[in-house]
Amino acid sequence: MLTPKMLQALNDQLQAEYHSSYLYLSMAARCADLNLPGFAHWFRVQVQEENVHALKFFDYILLRRGTVELKGIEKPTGSWPNALAVFEDALKHEQYITRRIHDLVKLAREANDPATEALLQWFVTEQVEEEAMVDGLVQQLKVMGESPSGLFIMDRELAKRQLGAQ
Ligand code: OFO
Fold it and tell me: Does the pTM of the predicted model rise above 0.85?
């Protein structure tokens, strides 16, 4: 049985994962506006990943006989001048999600809830990968500067992304 505090925190994280999904959908739209269809595709795949994350929390809450509470999702407000700004914000967002996951691990330990801690370990590893992946793209964009040919090549690469692969 989940403690009420743990249940609330897991429901909050379910909401945070859907917020990530919504944020990345807005980033996909912005990349499409910037005429970067490969970048837009990359974010659309990221949207699917976030939906998978959200459903992991959804399923786990139900498995532990907790009550799922679906909360409202905040409107994404970013307005990004270019691809670098989009990815810099995506990186900041992933760092924020990592902090949230680490706080959840702490809570699970305090609640003496090893099952929830085991679920969260998957997310701890996932966050290392998510941050590294987005950071890699930020660094690539910084090295390229405003080079249109560099952006074109990168756009073609990002168009190849598939769910479950970088
Ligand atoms: Fe769910 O990892 Fe990104 O936000």
Answer: yes
Instruction: Establish whether residue 20 lines the binding site of ligand 1, counting it when its CB lies within 6 angstroms of any ligand atom.
Output: yes
The answer to whether residues 9 and 104 touch, using CB atoms and an 8 Å cutoff, is yes
In contact, 160 and 145? CB cutoff 8 Å: no
Contact 116, 10 (CB under 8 A): yes
Torsion angle of alpha carbons 45, 46, 48, 53, nearest 10°?
150
C-alpha 53 – ligand 1 centre gap (Å): 7
Taking the CA of residue 93 as reference, the ligand 1 atom at the shortest distance is 4
Ligand 1 atom 1, closest CA: 50
The pLDDT profile of the chain, 166 residues, written as one tens digit per residue, is 899 999 999 999 999 999 999 999 999 999 999 999 999 999 999 999 999 999 999 999 999 999 999 999 999 988 899 999 999 999 999 999 999 999 999 999 999 999 999 999 999 999 999 999 999 999 999 998 878 999 999 999 999 999 975 4
Residue 165 lies in a domain: no
Number of domains in the chain: 1
- Show the domain range for 123: 4-70+79-158
For a pocket test of ligand 1, which of 50, 55, 96 has the largest count of ligand atoms closer than 8 A to its C-beta?
Answer: 50
